[in-house]
Amino acid sequence: MILMPAQSWFCLRVFFVFIIPVVQSHAADIAWKKYVNERFGYSLEYPAALVASPDPFDKSGREYHTPDSEFSVATAAHYLRIVDPNESLDSNWKDDVKDLKKLITYKKKSDSWYVISGVTTNGYVFYYKFFTQGNNWATFHIIYPKSQKTKYDPWVTRIEKHFVPFLKGKYYERSEWKGAAVK
């Protein structure tokens, strides 16, 4: 059994009781906004201080970043099998794992989603989450400097927790899109 001097034990308790909750509550202390994509029916919460990039022409998503572009979250959705008839959750998973192989520090896959995270060679953390439902997919990608992990990890946690890839209701499904060859 290892005994700690009283001063060390006190410092450790102060750290866990006061410091950790302050870091975790950082995401709750800032204002948040919600982006709802009316075309594909998904939503993303993001810090209100982020700057929006222009909408893409196809209205499939949006990118938000800090004014200095240090942190970025991009979200998009679209249809499966538009270009490649074999596109699926599995094919996207395999492509992402293959492309990011040496950089991945965490990955997990289920029947309807996967997440891949890691650090780039230039020191940026990336976090990708990809969802499928029926003939549609939705995703978000986050990137920020590893040196700012303490600052941005609470944002990532909240974005991930509140992302809704498929809202209830009638949205623009692939079967309604006349330009796609529906099988």
Overall description:
The protein is of the alpha+beta class and 183 residues long. The protein has 2 domains: 1-30, no CATH class; 31-176, Protein Transport Mog1p, Chain A (3-Layer(aba) Sandwich). It has helices spanning 6-29, 89-100, 149-162; strands at residues 32-37, 42-47, 51-52, 61-65, 72-79, 104-109, 113-119, 124-133, 136-145. The strands form 2 sheets. Strands 3-4-5-9-8-7-6 form a 7-stranded antiparallel sheet, with helices on both faces. Strands 1-2 form a two-stranded antiparallel sheet. The radius of gyration is 20 Å and the shape is globular. The relative contact order is 0.16. The model is unreliable at 1-25 and 174-183 (pLDDT under 50).
Topology of helices and strands:
Blueprint: H1 6-29, E1 32-37, E2 42-47, E3 51-52, E4 61-65, E5 72-79, H2 89-100, E6 104-109, E7 113-119, E8 124-133, E9 136-145, H3 149-162
Antiparallel strand pairs: 1-2, 3-4, 4-5, 5-9, 6-7, 7-8, 8-9
Helix pairs in contact: 1-3
In short:
The chain has 183 residues and is α+β, with helices and mostly antiparallel strands. Helix content is 27%, strand content 33%.
Radius of gyration: 20 Å
The portion of residues assigned to helices is 25-40%
* Helix and strand run: HEEEEEHEEEEH
Number of folding domains? 2
